[in-house]
Amino acid sequence: MTILEAAKLDIGYRKTKIGRDIDLDIRAGEVLCLLGPNGGGKTTLMKTLLGLLPALGGTITLQGRAIGDYSRAELAKIVGYVPQAGTNFFPFNVIDVVLMGRVAHIGLFASPGKKDVAAAEAALASLGMGHLRDRIYTEISGGERQLVLIARALAQEPKLLVMDEPTASLDFGNQLRVLDQITALAKRGMAVVLSTHDPDHVFLCGDRAALLRDGRLVALGPPIEVVTEAALAALYGVDVEVVELPDHQTHTAVPARGRKPFAG
Amino acid sequence: MKRSLAVDIGLPFGLLVLLCVVSFAVGQFPVSPHDLFAVLWAKISGGASGVPAAVDAVVWRIRLPRIAAAVLVGAALSGAGSTYQGLFRNPLVSPDILGVAAGAGLGAVLGIFLSVSILAVELLAFVGGLGAVAIVYLIGTAMKGRDPILVLVLAGVAMGTLLGAAIALVKVFADPYNQLPAITFWLLGSLTAVTLPDLDAAVPAIIIGLVPLFLLRWRMNVMTLGEEEAKSLGVNTSFLRFMFIAGATLITSAAVSIAGIIGWIGLIIPHVARLVAGPEFSRLLPVSMLFGAAYLLLVDTLARTMATVEIPIGVLTAFIGAPFFLWLLASSRRGWQ
User: Fold this and answer.
1) Is B224 in contact with A96 (Cβ distance < 8 A)?
2) Separation in Å, CA of A90 to nearest CA in chain B
3) pLDDT tens figures, B269-310
4) CA–CA separation, A212 vs A46, rounded Å?
5) Model pLDDT for residues A85-122, shown as the tens digit of each residue
6) How close B112 gets to chain A, by Cα (Å)?
């Protein structure tokens, strides 16, 4: 089922057009990875899909309705945003951070009720983070913070999650833990769009990859088909080899550095 | 550990009541606890207090307006301070961030310069404070496409400097024997001249300003996440920002109009309240207001009892506030990372 469809989309800030003619659809239960160099338009595209920036041309249709026809609160019940986990936060308790995800479900003058607390706790528990409930957000690890922000987005009860480099500035173990949770979310029917700088992460969790360069969508399809040596060389201007691992289940990109072609 | 709201609110409330009793009792004309309770009981029961009329006058005519004003202004400045700190996501923000103090200052200084009545000076201060923030807010909304918070802060700084220059200009032309001392004293803040009719005018403005803050208190938490995150969570940020700024500015203007410019309270007290009650705004707002009321009452009581001359409150709050703030900065890990 298609959740979001972008057609002939032009993106950018006010007068500065950053990207154009982007055709993209996002389906329930899939992870779509945005890959491309800095300045390629990943962030601008995500902000436009979130309705934070107006489209400069073309259309975005969300569950059959134009994105502009939704109110902020209606939009938040369909699309959840997971920003990079920073620390410039007041030292809220973790549960208070997750409860903020309920704001679209709570009346203007109201505070969270039992139902909202239950939803927030369920969101934390579904990511295995229930034990952090009463910890202070600024004092937990970077990987935990990222998962708490995912829990906050889940508390919105959206159909689509948009994640801005969810693995950035995490250590190796936390990167894999976050990717595992993202894969699990998609298995339960969530549509996920995430941006990343690591082709291996696309191989690990992406159902499809979208390659963005100079504001254009240069390829869209299954990672094995579109994240190729030629594509990576064109995107980043570096020489890499894409190698199938012996288990025949996943691929990895490694720098070529003039080595002899891998013969495995 | 999560402490109950009753403890967080009950303790500062108890402290405030205790300070009120002490403040009624001490001063150039000490009132013994026995006389104080006799006077209070007489008021409640409607009977005769049996204490000299002078004691009665000191308690009701002199001490009460001043204590009420200290409680009111302290609560107002601290409540506004925690609102602005949340909204601007910055613990270094004080209620005069958008130029409210400078605007009120110019209004009052002009009033003193033109020798209008005290009530008119207060009205001018009130209008000046609201006007300055309104202009800053309009500048902020006119510059679209940039971080609205950043534009507001920078416009507020520019406005504050401009108004400060205007205040300096008026001081140059003011009569150095009659007007200049009054201007200086007002700019340093004082509760000496506050009367009950002054409070009659300020209380409704403060209550009206508090209404949106209390009604929208939980949403303030979401606003502290910043513009984009708050929007993506489904919040109408421009509406909320307007309501919070309008409410906090109304409160600050009313407080400044009766007490002059009392710095540091709106900056320090929210910090202390956050250390005690955490950053969650539904808790932070009432705890801040109680702490602010108790603190200003303490400072004002010191200001009128420490020396034979009345010390301007602004001087005392700065002497206490600045070192305390530096200590917080050096030691606090929970306050802000």
Assistant:
1) no
2) 6
3) 998 999 889 999 999 999 999 999 999 999 999 999 988 888
4) 12
5) 876 668 899 999 999 999 999 999 999 999 999 999 99
6) 42
**Residue A101 · residue B234 · CB < 8 Å:** no
Predicted TM-score of the model (pTM) = 0.91
A111 touches chain B (CB under 8 A): yes
CB contact (8 A) between residue B234 and residue A90: no
- Asked if A90 lies within 8 A of B216 by C-beta distance, the reply is no
A window 30-69, beta carbon within 8 A of B: 47, 50, 52
Q: Where are the domains of chain B?
A: 5-331
Fill in the amino acid letter for B182: A
Q: How many CB pairs under 8 A join A and B?
A: 86
Position A264 confidence tier, pLDDT thresholds 50, 70, 90: very low
- Partner-chain contact A79 B232, CB within 8 Å: yes
Q: Which of B8, B239, B87, B288 is nearest to A90 (CA)?
A: B87
Q: Which CATH superfamily is domain B5-331 in?
A: ABC transporter involved in vitamin B12 uptake, BtuC (1.10.3470.10)
Q: Choose from B233, B244, B328 for mutation: most chain A CBs within 10 A.
A: B233
Q: Which residues of B touch A136 (CB under 8 A)?
A: 334
Strand ranges of the sheet holding A16-27, from the earlier edge strand across to the other edge: A16-27, A2-13, A57-62, A65-66
DSSP letters for A61-90: EETTEEGGGS-HHHHHTTEEEE------S-
Check: CB of residue A98 under 8 Å from CB of residue A124.
Answer: yes
Q: Under 8 Å CB-to-CB from A160, ≥6 apart: which residues?
A: A3, A4, A26, A78, A79, A80, A190, A191, A192, A193
- Tell me which chain B residue has its CA closest to the CA of residue A88: B337
